[in-house]
Amino acid sequence: MEIALAQVKPKLGCVADNLAMIESHISRSIDAKAGLIVFPELAMTGYFLKDLVPEVAMSIDSREIDRLKKLSTHISIAIGFVEVTSDYLFHNSALYIEGGQIKHVHRKVYLPTYGLFDEQRYLAQGVRFQAFDTQLGRVGLLLCEDMWHLSSSYILAMDGAATLICLSSSPGRGISSDSSLDSTKAWQKLTSTVALFLNCRVLFCNRVGYEDGVNFWGGSEVVAPGGDVVKRGKLFEEDSVVVSVDEGDLRRDRIFSPMLRDESLYITLKELSRIQQARDC
């Protein structure tokens, strides 16, 4: 399967403009015979929304989502948006749409509220990580900060996910001694390490552009199950990272390094239960 990571620059609060941009990228990827296109976190709305959250939020049966569902009969779509539920909770959510249907909704669990981040002031927390079946195989969705909690990827891998898709809006922060961004280097270490230790593909799609004086750095990448980078997008520029995924690569890496096979869910659950009981005392 050909996979496209759409490293785009959404406009803050402009859902109609962003949807037009998204549909244009989808159409080009369909023409290129891609089987899956991945967009960044909050691609439909922009990131630093603050009080705009209720204005740009949409339900999963909205007109905008219906348009994406129609396009998904030609290509699978992973995309981030602000979701409003029937009880008027607002979530930073990701959709996986395939064959005209919503296959999965992931609501961001770990909402960063420190430094320049203030998601928990405006958004409700998700409560689960769950893998699901797709044409690409079993997949798990993560939203940016989710991936920095190692248990998130671990849960998805133990639920059978062979591909982890992380939709991100990571801003540039810190300068290293070699003049590269600290945030860039940290993400590249993280995606490679997760792929290596969980024997999973990692598809990392990060946005670009400026918002509220903050620059998003891009660098979207596809990482093989052994931890090697297959392809990486440009820094600070819009880009399309297109990669052909071969199931044989996953098979070879899992035979060569069967750590996931040998992982004991029983021991993990038993010891976590012991730790929880000790903390409750």
Topology:
Elements: E1 2-7, H1 15-31, E2 36-38, H2 53-56, H3 63-71, E3 76-84, E4 90-98, E5 101-107, E6 132-134, E7 137-143, H4 150-158, E8 163-168, H5 182-198, E9 201-206, E10 208-211, E11 214-217, E12 221-223, E13 229-232, E14 239-244, H6 247-256, H7 259-262, H8 265-280
Q: In short, what is this structure?
A:
The chain is α/β, with parallel strands linked by helices and 281 residues long. The protein is 31% helix and 27% strand. The protein has one domain (2-280): 4-Layer Sandwich (Nitrilase/N-carbamoyl-D-aminoacid amidohydrolase).
Overview of the molecule:
With 281 residues, this protein is of the alpha/beta class. The chain has a single domain, classed as 4-Layer Sandwich (Nitrilase/N-carbamoyl-D-aminoacid amidohydrolase), CATH 3.60.110. The chain is 31% helix and 27% strand. The protein has eight helices and 14 strands. The protein has helices spanning 15-31, 53-56, 63-71, 150-158, 182-198, 247-256, 259-262, 265-280; strands spanning 2-7, 36-38, 76-84, 90-98, 101-107, 132-134, 137-143, 163-168, 201-206, 208-211, 214-217, 221-223, 229-232, 239-244. The strands form three sheets. A six-stranded mixed sheet has the order 5-4-3-2-1-14. The mean pLDDT is 96.
